[in-house]
Amino acid sequence: GASLEKTRRRFIKSSSPQGDYGQSNREWLIAGPFPAAGIANPMAHPFIPDEDRLMPLPNRNGWSAPIYFTDDRIDLGDYFTRNQKKAIPDKMVGYAFTLFDAPRDQEAEFWIGTDEAMRIYLNGELIYDQSQTSLFPNGTLYNEIIKARIKAGENRLLVKTVQTEGYYHFSLNIC
Questions:
Q1: Cα gap 122→108, rounded to integer Å
Q2: What does pTM read for this prediction?
Q3: Do the beta carbons of residue 141 and residue 80 sit within 8 Å?
Q4: CA atoms of 20 and 25, how far apart (whole Å)
Q5: Closest listed residue to residue 30, CA positions, set 170, 175, 174
Q6: Which of 58, 91, 99, 138 is the most exposed place for a label (fewest CB within 10 A)?
Q7: How far apart are CA 57 and CA 48, in angstroms?
Q8: Cα-Cα-Cα-Cα dihedral sign, residues 129, 79, 157, 111
Q9: What is the pLDDT of residues 10-52, one digit of tens each?
C-alpha cells in the first residue's frame, strides 16, 4: 500500500474536559444530494418515503456502498463533490445511515455536532429534530448532547441533514 507519509492525516481531538467523546461511527451509507430549493420545510419533505423505517442496502435504491470517513466530522459536502458527476445544488438534503451494536438495553448519550437542520432516527423513532441554525465551529466535535434508549444487539441510525451554506458536515457519537 501507500507509505505512511502519503496516508497520514491529522484528526480533531475532543475539547471535552472529560475526554469521553471517543471515536464515532465511521462507516455510513449515503443517499443524496436531493435538491431542496423552493421547498419551504426540507426536513418535513419526504425525499425518501418512510425515512423513519428505512433499512437501506448498499448500492441499492440510490444508497452508496459503505463509505468509511476518516474523521469524526462526517463531511457530506466533500463526499458529494467527489462522487457526483453533476453540479451540487446550493440547497440540498442528504441522508446517512449506519448500524451499531449495543451489549444491552441501556440509555446512551448522543453527542451531536451540526450547524444546520438535522433529524436523527434511532430504530424508527425520531430522537433529535434540530430545525434552526446553530454554531458548530471548526475544531469542535459536538455542540449538543441528548439521551436516548438503545436496545441490545443491532440498532438502526438514520441522519437527515439540510445544507444551505458553508460546510456540509455533521458529527455524531454514541456514548
A1: 11
A2: 0.85
A3: no
A4: 14
A5: 170
A6: 138
A7: 14
A8: negative
A9: 766 656 554 566 667 789 999 999 999 999 899 999 999 999 9
